[in-house]
Amino acid sequence: MLGIRTGNGHFASAPARLLGEPEFYLQRPGFWHGGAGIAACWYGAAAAIAEHVRRSPRVAKNPFAAAHLGAIDEQLTGARLMLQDLAKAIDDAPTHSHQLAVIRLRSMMDRVCRDVIERAALALGPASLCCDAGHAQRCADLAAFVRQSHGQKDEQWLGERLHASEVNPWLL
């Protein structure tokens, strides 16, 4: 994200007014939908990295590179299906928060993105990160971008809700 201009702000004696009760921001309609949108951005970046691997001549010459591409495909296909399912759920019930599904998606996408970056490096070798500035920047940007994930905090939240639930969420 080196090419993105950013800066810091400092506010002293700035007037403010209360917009809502505690937790209002997190509970407002559409908040969690935005979290799904961020996960979709992560997916897009991971898909671009995967496409770079798919187009590499190394995949045809190196069975390990092909295996990494196969694993990337498995993960991105599952992520795409999860994204599409959540998008439909949001469209069908736009006033529902979908918090559980969004946190589940973001946690999974965090893991998928980190794995895609790792497998791309293994499939393409170090030259891809040393000599291909565009690919290297994409990998670095995605690694930074997924740090918006709350990692184990979100997984803890999911686990607590699943444990307290009376419903088995994995039945077909």
Textual characterization of the structure:
The protein has 172 residues and is mostly helical. It has a single domain (29-160), classed as Butyryl-CoA Dehydrogenase, subunit A, domain 3 (Up-down Bundle), CATH 1.20.140.10. The chain has eight helices and no strands. Helix 2 (31-54) runs antiparallel to helix 4 (63-92). The longest helix has 30 residues, at 63-92. The N and C termini lie far apart (41 Å). The mean pLDDT is 94.
Tags for this entry?
172 residues; mainly alpha; Butyryl-CoA Dehydrogenase, subunit A, domain 3; 0% strand
According to DSSP, the number of beta strands is 0
Q: Tell me the name of the CATH class.
A: Mainly Alpha
**Main pleated sheet:** none
Helix proportion: 55-70%
Structural class: mainly alpha
Q: Give the DSSP E fraction (strand runs of 2 or more residues).
A: under 5%
- For this structure, what is the CATH homologous superfamily? Butyryl-CoA Dehydrogenase, subunit A, domain 3
What's the Cα radius of gyration?
Answer: 19 Å
List the helices and strands and how they pair.
Layout: H1 24-27, H2 31-54, H3 58-61, H4 63-92, H5 99-124, H6 127-130, H7 133-145, H8 151-164
Helix pairs in contact: 2-4, 2-5, 2-7, 4-5, 5-8
Keywords: Flavoprotein
Organism: Xanthomonas phaseoli pv. syngonii LMG 9055
GO molecular function, one term: oxidoreductase activity, acting on the CH-CH group of donors
Quick recap:
The protein is mostly helical and 172 residues long. It has eight helices and no strands. It has helices at residues 24-27, 31-54, 58-61, 63-92, 99-124, 127-130, 133-145, 151-164.
